[in-house]
TrEMBL record:
The lineage of its organism: Eukaryota, Metazoa, Ecdysozoa, Nematoda, Chromadorea. This is C2H2-type domain-containing protein. Residues 71-90 are annotated as: Disordered. It comes from the Eukaryota. It comes from Caenorhabditis tropicalis. Coiled coil: none annotated.
């Protein structure tokens, strides 16, 4: 287009912007969607979503690298509070672990 019409790069960019604005006004009532990462403009929200997914994909995160703690320390003082168990009745019974040399007691519901 630059060589055929003797247009500068700025002229071409302005033309592209005008085309997007016209498409947006006919499809979305005049709203142009702009990419927050690179400034690319499109006429539809779906077009922006497609652009972001193709041009700015998120890096894959290994679930093992996700921490439940606010900082990098892995100690119990930063652990979230224990959940309360619902439905525990007053009919609890203590059971001693059947494994040899283990005397740990566990509570069970009857």
């Amino acid at each position: 287009m630059e060589s055929g019409h003797k247009a500068t790069k700025d002229d071409v960019e302005m033309f592209k912007k005008k085309v997007v604005e016209e498409r947006a006004s006919s499809k979305q009532g005049g709203e142009v969607h702009v990419c927050g990462a690179c400034g690319y403009t499109v006429a539809t929200k779906k077009g922006l979503e497609t652009h972001v997914n193709r041009k700015h994909p998120k890096e894959h995160v290994n679930p093992a690298d996700i921490s439940l703690f606010l900082d990098d320390r892995n100690d119990s003082e930063n652990a979230p509070p224990a959940k309360k168990v619902r439905g525990m009745s007053s009919n609890e019974e203590s059971v001693v672990c059947p494994v040899k040399d283990c005397s740990q007691e566990c509570k069970t519901r009857l």
